[in-house]
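Homework help board

Subject: predicted structure for assignment chain

Our instructor gave us this sequence and asked us to write out the predicted structure in token form, then describe one feature. I got the tokens but I'm not sure how to describe them. Can anyone check?
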Amino acid sequence: MIFKQLSQKIEVKDVVFDEIFPPGIKAVADRHWTPVAVAKMAAEYLTEKQDQKVLDIGAGAGKFCLVGAASTKGFFYGVEQRKALTKMSRKIADRYNIMNVEFINSNINEISFSDYDAFYFFNSFFENIDTSNPIDNTILPDSGLYQVYSDYVREQLDKTPVGTRLVTYWSKWDEIPTNFELVDSAFNGFLSFWKKVS
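My token output:
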């Protein structure tokens, strides 16, 4: 029902959407998963052209990709290092027959950005430097990884074509190359819309 509502542009509240997740995943939703309204706005910006391939850099429970796939005509790919979260996201997509989404169990530095057209980033590396509210205990924090992953994303984005779109949410902007221009923002400045200009 919720995915049909999203496809029909009917508002879906997070408290309703998050019921698709198991209790432990639902419990950390407010901190770690993209709100539905944010995901819809970001996905619409990233899929301005037909059949855009959007990469979610650190997909977590897959919420952004699931919302984006249900509410736009884009193709959404979520890369996530936690195997259990990737498996869960795939099961949800299968259960609700969401065909334009794929979840990849991998570290981001094993992904080539040249395979994608647009990018979404909800500060997924921050868990390496902020241990106050972890997703789970399967990944040990490593402050060095924050910089390693941010540098890799910046290098990959730097290689993308002029006109490439990027959306960041709650980002420190460490992963954004200087040739990306901020074109708009929303949600009190926490959601930022970028385009590569050179």
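Reply (TA_rk): Your tokens look well-formed. For the description, you could write something like this. The domain at 2-196 is CATH 3.40.50.150 (Rossmann fold). That's the kind of observation they're looking for.
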